[in-house]
Specification:
This protein is mostly helical and about 150 residues long. The protein is about 40% helix and about 5% strand. The chain has two domains: about 50 residues, no CATH class; about 80 residues, no CATH class. The protein is globular.
């Protein structure tokens, strides 16, 4: 991301694009771009920034601007879009957005692109999937050192 008056701004398709940076780095290092990835290609943030990723990210931002609000869970956004009526909101690929697993998956993919490319702030969304970690009640009963009898 670029800095502007000390504030983070979104990536730019040409100025700084993680995918373009990755390809340039791979060329300088004389390796494939895939070799520089720490995660699976579809999950690594540095592999985002293709024209298709930008298209998905812009589509998500547009839907979030229309139907979202700060603190909204991503699933709620899915229901808001799909409850308008079958096919009233087209996906970036022209197919109608429907209340099904395929469209939910596409929304998630578009959200990932928008988040990584800086078009939406991830802090504006609520995630309730991960529960508070459980405190192990046995911890106090564990011996610090083994005792042999």
């Amino acid at each position: 991301m670029t800095e502007e008056n000390g504030q983070r701004t979104r990536y730019d398709e040409t100025e700084f694009n993680p995918n373009i940076w990755l390809k340039a780095k791979a060329e300088r290092e004389a390796v494939t771009a895939k070799r520089l990835l720490a995660m699976a290609p579809q999950n690594d943030p540095f592999n985002f920034g293709t024209p298709a990723d930008w298209e998905k990210a812009r589509w998500f931002k547009e839907q979030n601007d229309r139907f979202g609000q700060v603190g909204l869970h991503l699933r709620r956004l899915h229901y808001r879009i799909s409850n308008l009526g079958e096919g009233l909101v087209p996906l970036w690929d022209g197919k109608p957005y429907e209340n099904n697993k395929e469209c939910w998956g596409k929304l998630d993919i578009a959200f990932t692109a928008a988040r990584i490319l800086g078009l939406v702030d991830p802090a504006d969304f609520t995630e309730r999937r991960v529960k508070t970690p459980r405190v192990d009640s046995m911890r106090g009963n564990v011996c610090q050192y083994p005792s042999f009898r």
